[in-house]
Design goal:
alpha+beta, two-stranded parallel ribbon, 3 helices, 2 strands, 40% helix, 11% strand, elongated
Length: 92
Amino acid sequence: MKRHLVLPARGVLIVNTDVHGNLADFARVEAIFHQTREAEPETHWVILGDVVHAPDDVARRTTPALYDYPDGSMEIVDRIRALSTEHAGHVH
């Protein structure tokens, strides 16, 4: 597997960092990717950081301002896999 990625000189780059199992946040970036790619076919999405490991029940209960979402980790992983197939070479 390559340890680096060379992207085209022109186009749009969407980058996200940790979503930690927050499916709503992931879905928002996914929608932006779809909208942008429709307008600009040379759109690339680079997913950096943690996509899994949402907060546990204790964290949701004691710090709801930060952790008020359920664990969507597995659905996020499934969606990334599907996106990687559907948009081959554009989701990294």
